[in-house]
């Protein structure tokens, strides 16, 4: 009987705590925006594994035209595709008369770099990592200089114009591969 009362009390406490925990979790999230899904472009290096077909396994580069030259099936467009989409495209092409029930795995070996300049300690080119935020990019470049503006940042996504982003507590700004990040100078 006493055991049953303890279980009921625990269940009641849990039913009260769960909505509270999810409400607190919702307020602690820094941004509703998710990190961008990585899409392939020229300069990326990938590894393709076709299970049971050792001669097709290897490392491939996305060429200047955005294609991957793959044995048997030729050039496949990769520019703008996610890794999963490219994996599906290779699987579909191999299944059309080349391999019975192909199982393909694709992974990115090296990403296109991002660039950071302005008021950081070590401006330059750095390797991109998935789910990279501006704060992490600045840390990679040795942090802000004493003159840096920490309230805004300027980002030029590949092929687009430079855009100003406001920085603040709990706000996350995501970096994409190939981005140029400029940290401006503060005024007093």
From TrEMBL:
Keyword Methyltransferase: no
Listed InterPro entries: Poly_export, Poly_export_N, Soluble_ligand-bd
Keyword Signal (UniProt): yes
Pfam families named among the record's database cross-references: Poly_export, SLBB
Protein name, as recorded: Polysaccharide export protein
Signal sequence bounds: 1-23
Organism name: Sphingomonas gei
Listed transmembrane segments: none
Domain (Polysaccharide export protein N-terminal) ranges: 34-108
UniProt keyword list: Signal
Organism domain of life: Bacteria
GO molecular function per UniProt: polysaccharide transmembrane transporter activity
Coiled-coil ranges (or none): none
Domain Soluble ligand binding: 114-158
């Amino acid at each position: 009987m006493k055991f049953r009362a303890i279980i009921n009390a625990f269940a009641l406490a849990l039913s009260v705590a769960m909505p509270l925990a999810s409400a607190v979790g919702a307020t602690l999230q820094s941004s509703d925006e998710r990190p961008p899904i990585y899409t392939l472009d020229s300069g990326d290096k990938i590894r393709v594994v076709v299970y049971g077909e050792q001669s097709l396994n290897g490392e491939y580069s996305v060429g200047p035209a955005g294609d991957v030259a793959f044995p048997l099936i030729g050039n496949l467009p990769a520019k703008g595709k996610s890794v999963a989409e490219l994996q599906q495209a290779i699987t579909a092409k191999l299944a059309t008369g080349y391999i019975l029930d192909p199982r393909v795995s694709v992974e990115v070996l090296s990403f296109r770099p991002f660039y950071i300049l302005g008021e950081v300690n070590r401006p330059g080119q750095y390797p991109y990592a998935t789910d990279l935020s501006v704060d992490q990019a600045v840390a990679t470049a040795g942090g802000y200089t004493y003159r840096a503006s920490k309230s805004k940042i300027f980002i030029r996504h590949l092929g687009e114009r430079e855009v100003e982003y406001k920085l603040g507590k709990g706000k996350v700004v995501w970096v994409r591969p190939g981005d140029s990040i400029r940290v401006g100078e503060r005024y007093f």
